[in-house]
Design goal:
Helices cover 42% and strands 7% of the residues. The protein is built from 4 helices and 2 strands; from the N terminus they run H-E-H-E-H-H. It has a two-stranded parallel ribbon. Helix 1 packs parallel to helix 2 and helix 2 crosses helix 4. The protein is globular and about 40 Å long. The model has no long low-confidence stretch (mean pLDDT 91).
């Protein structure tokens, strides 16, 4: 049903904060922020931002029926640290913060 589909283009942090306050829920969220960690020196700060974005996105997924979160990073530093586990560990940490259970369906690399 086309009435139930919407696409948003906005500052994601602001949008999600407002949506959480308004108790909105979504079945599918695609979270694809710009490169937040262009180098290893910016990794800690970027990790905190990715964590917050993923936590907030998880808080917007339908709490009764669940849903799908497609989360991405184009920051090589996030995907190469700890043998590729750094980003996945951050997503798991965000799930704990959001008090949500997640199931990893697939991991993909650059096209």
């Amino acid at each position: 049903d086309a009435k139930k589909i919407s696409f948003m283009r906005d500052d994601i942090a602001t949008f999600m904060k407002t949506a959480i306050e308004d108790e909105e829920e979504y079945d599918v969220i695609v979270l694809d922020p710009p490169k937040l960690a262009p180098s290893l020196s910016s990794l800690d700060k970027a990790s905190r931002k990715y964590h917050a974005l993923n936590r907030d996105a998880m808080n917007l997924i339908n709490k009764e029926q669940g849903g799908l979160l497609l989360t991405c990073t184009c920051s090589a530093a996030m995907t190469q640290k700890d043998g590729g586990r750094y980003f996945l560990n951050m997503v798991n940490g965000a799930a704990l913060s959001a008090k949500r259970r997640v199931t990893l369906l697939r991991v993909c690399g650059a096209a």
